[in-house]
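Limitations

Structures in this collection are predictions, not experimental determinations, and the ligand pose is part of the prediction. Treat each record accordingly. The example that follows, with adenosine-5'-triphosphate as the small molecule, is included so readers can see exactly what is and is not provided: the inputs are given verbatim, and the output is the predicted complex.
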Amino acid sequence: MKSDLKLVNVTKRYGETVAVKSINHHFRSGSYACLLGPSGCGKSTTLRMIAGHESVSDGSIVLDGRDVSYLPPAKRGTAMMFQSYALFPHLSVADNVSFSLKMKGVDATKRRTRAMEMLELVDMAKLGDRLPAQLSGGQQQRVALARALITEPQVLLLDEPLSALDPFLRIRMRAELKKLQRETGITFIHVTHGQDEALALADEIVVMNNAVIEQAGPAREIFDAPRTAFVAKFIGAHNVIALPEGKVALRSDAIQLTDAQAAQLSGRITAIEYQGTHVALTAMVAGEQEVTVLLTDKEFFGAPKETGEAIGLAWDARSAHTLSA
Ligand SMILES: Nc1ncnc2c1ncn2[C@@H]1O[C@H](COP(=O)(O)OP(=O)(O)OP(=O)(O)O)[C@@H](O)[C@H]1O
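Predicted complex:
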């Protein structure tokens, strides 16, 4: 399909370090993808190789049927938005946005018109004459977005775009990023180490660990059916439990409290944590394993429990996902 981006056996080595190890992935045109993983797993390196800011050691990057692996960044059909926004401090907002057009020799009137269109798109048209230092963090981010979008990329690459913002603004800007992606229809590839950010934004989540892709799929599939213990733990809200039949991932809200006869596991409560809408109850079960059960506040306060109490745990067999690693 047009504008699809394919990574074919892409590897990056820095001397002895393998930062990205022969990864394959197909990013669908027009989708919002999040590369999710812990620090050092290779997600920024992957993004930088797609952008052309880093060379590939092996493999190829194919955009829209073209091998772009050896093209300079400006010739690829991608644009990158950096974590620090990297705005020119001495240029006005409008001149920052239209900078790449100036480099291409586009005349001043046309540049200004295009810059204002882009600023309109990110809701910043009124501040075109300000300098970056006169903007808030969220406003600087919008300018950086407008500056990336003016190049009309097929793929927009975002490296931890929300990490410089305070928590309140982060949640607001993430809704705006999603809206912008839907409005423009451009493929977004967004690097994050925040599972909540990935779940909130992504059509597809690509989970990386130790230089490889552990699992990729729609956000709900990753959350509902993690395939490895790493994915289950990283995505959160799951227990990884060793049972006689093997290791399983079990959502903490998929476990019910039950009496001893009906229990699949029994144990003793070690901690109770009130979380507002829910109460998280931790129990120590056979084999010194800790299991967390998330109850709605209604369920918990309907039959309150105390630390030290014996409890039985049960779940629907379909909720337990056998793990491959
Ligand atoms: N220029 C470099 N030279 C040598 N090693 C590098 C270089 N850049 C990255 N690495 C190594 O490659 C691995 C992957 O780094 P990368 O920045 O892609 O991880 P990341 O998942 O984006 O982490 P973070 O979230 O901390 O940015 C790490 O082990 C890192 O130390």
